[in-house]
Design a protein that fits this description.
290 residues; mainly alpha
Length: 290
């Protein structure tokens, strides 16, 4: 088994070197694509060649599609295929690195536990990366849903005061004072950039809805596009009805977050309880033995 680990380590190293020579600067252009969480860009470039020529993504179409969809929601449709390739390469890179480290640990310690640990982590860590990506998408959706009722109330007030829809949205964006880190206002700012770039109001609003990829935003977009030409009381009433629905959604998310926070506190409380029992019970047991 020890010799098998040595062969595995040599095979992993040889495979990486062979792919590194073959890929050359083929993926140099991907290094400038902005994407958070990639820590092995230089190391995983050979695996991008393996994914493309070996068509490994075709063996896991559902996983690849889910990852691409999540990346599109986080970073937009542009470069989504390239970002999917980078993310899959990152997953392969971690698996390769952990297998090589496990083999090396077994060779050094002469214990089989090293390669077993490396193999288990090589399977679990890529799955954890995919799960973390989907968690970021859910968090983004929740942030948009939590802020959308506030935005809608502001638009209703401004339109009721005599502003048109476009100027009301611009005023809401301007109230952020240039801080567009929130995903909803980031997409709204991109929508205003599209207006200035020549897009019509309807095109820019539809693109905004697609980028957000949230059902409630689609309802908001539909309500605005159906009623903004009418203006006046009809438009305000339509947005107020939608606002009540969105506030209920926000309350449901708040309750869910509160329940999740309570559940996360259970484990620390159990640990503290056990520590208190040990601290209190140990002296009593020692006194009984004496």
């Amino acid at each position: 088994m020890i010799w098998g680990c040595g062969i595995l380590l040599c095979a992993c190293t040889a495979l990486w070197l062979l792919l590194r020579v073959n890929c050359g600067d083929r993926y140099a252009g991907l290094r400038t694509i902005p994407m958070e969480g990639l820590r092995l860009r230089q190391l995983t470039e050979p695996f991008l060649l393996l994914l493309e020529r070996g068509r490994l993504g075709s063996y896991i179409p559902s996983l690849r599609l889910r990852i691409q969809r999540s990346l599109q929601q986080l970073y937009g449709v542009r470069y989504s295929a390239e970002r999917t390739l980078l993310f899959l390469g990152e997953m392969l890179g971690y698996s390769w690195l952990l297998l090589a480290a496990g083999s090396a640990l077994t060779l050094i310690s002469r214990e089989i536990a090293g390669i077993l640990l490396g193999a288990v982590l090589a399977l679990l860590l890529p799955a954890a990366l995919a799960r973390d990506l989907h968690k970021k998408v859910r968090l983004r959706e929740q942030q948009i849903l939590m802020e959308l009722p506030e935005l809608l109330n502001s638009i209703v007030l401004l339109v009721g005061a005599g502003e048109n829809v476009q100027r009301a949205i611009v005023r809401c964006i301007g109230s952020r004072n240039g801080d567009y880190t929130h995903p909803l206002y980031k997409e709204l700012f991109m929508m205003t950039v599209e207006w200035e770039g020549g897009y019509s109001f309807q095109q820019a609003f539809e693109n905004f809805s697609k980028r957000c990829a949230v059902q409630e935003v689609s309802l908001f977009t539909t309500a605005v596009l159906l009623n903004y030409r009418r203006g006046g009381s009809d438009f305000v009433l339509a947005l107020r009805d939608l606002s009540r629905v969105l506030w209920e959604k926000r309350k449901a998310i708040s309750r869910t977050r509160g329940e999740q926070a309570s559940a996360k506190l259970v484990f620390p409380m159990v640990v503290i309880f056990l520590i208190v029992i040990v601290l209190v019970g140990t002296p009593a047991i020692m006194m009984l033995k004496m």
